[in-house]
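Quick entry between incubations.
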Amino acid sequence: MQSAGWKSNNDVETGRERRAAQHKAGRIAAAKVGARLSGKPCNVARGMDGAPIWPNGLRGSISHCNGRSVAIAGHAGNWCGLGIDIEQHLSVEVAKDIAPVALTPYERAHFKGDPLWIALIFSAKESLFKALSPLIDKRFDFDAAELCVDAHPAPYLRLTRDLTPDWCAGRAITPLLIPCKDGVLTAVTLPNYPRNVAPPSIYKSAIVM
Amino acid sequence: MTEMKTVDATDFEWLETRVSQLIEDEGPIDPAESLIFYGLDSLRVMKFAGELKERGIIVSFEDLAKDPTLNAWSALIDAKAAS
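Done. Structure below.
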């Protein structure tokens, strides 16, 4: 698994120009990461819903925020889903605006109005959606999972409802949560091996920003 | 009276203006075109869902994200306001 980042030119004015520049930067990041994995030029197309279409044998996702784009990809044989997301830091006001929709009652009670946690939760659920939705061929909302901090060694996303027989309520997924100077980066990586079996060492991953 | 206020406050003109502010773009918006192509991102969709909730219109992020066009959002808001 590899990831790559790309910074687009911020000298654009309108929302559509900004989005076009970000998408272009995202495709460059995706092409870089795909080429690193496959050892040959990689073209990542864009589907009708805006989601990337990776060449055969690869899976991954792209995220954009404030002129930065990142991409993550891996071999489909190793990973059944990969999702990445970057977000800017949230102001207290924006965190308050989105908390009623982005967080479950448990999360609101546990994390209060902390803008950093709210950004991490929002981003982690975006990453989960990107990794899991194509795998199960089903869309789901932000209340389908909640970030839990309990006796586990690391915060994890717990599904709150049965999405499929395999992806049922209570299933735990440990996301990567990285607070950075400019915002947050999260990723959800779903390995392609049976549950309860330790991954082989070749599944070691690398992140390059 | 309350119901009238809600309907007045969320008509198509209001929606178009609010979305223009959200995507920071003053140009015309094709009501049938995906707002993703106008610069809408997931955080802005989430902010808008939160704003609608404050106005008493309960729509989920997914309701908005699965068909992000002015036409679809207008129909969604009308349906929720009428229910």
